[in-house]
Amino acid sequence: MTQPHTTALAFHETGRDHLLFSVRPDIPAADALHSASELLSAAAHSLDAVATGTALIDAHQAFLLCHALRAAKATVDSLIHDA
Hints:
Layout: E1 9-13, E2 19-23, H1 29-51, H2 59-80
Antiparallel strand pairs: 1-2
Helix pairs in contact: 1-2
Protein name: DUF3077 domain-containing protein
Pfam families: DUF3077
InterPro entries: DUF3077 (IPR021427)
């Protein structure tokens, strides 16, 4: 039985209809999910700090968190795309 792998999936446009970032195809699922988990963990840690009042974020940091969440979602979506 073969292990699942990612499929190509773009997740960030430049605003000019050009796709800048994407999930590369044929990454083993375990590796892709590990990376997505790390992104989600970092985002959750940052947002927990904001929610508890121990940290503040500016617009640049908020964009960074959004980008990390989009990357993690695209990674998971690339694994379930054809499931």
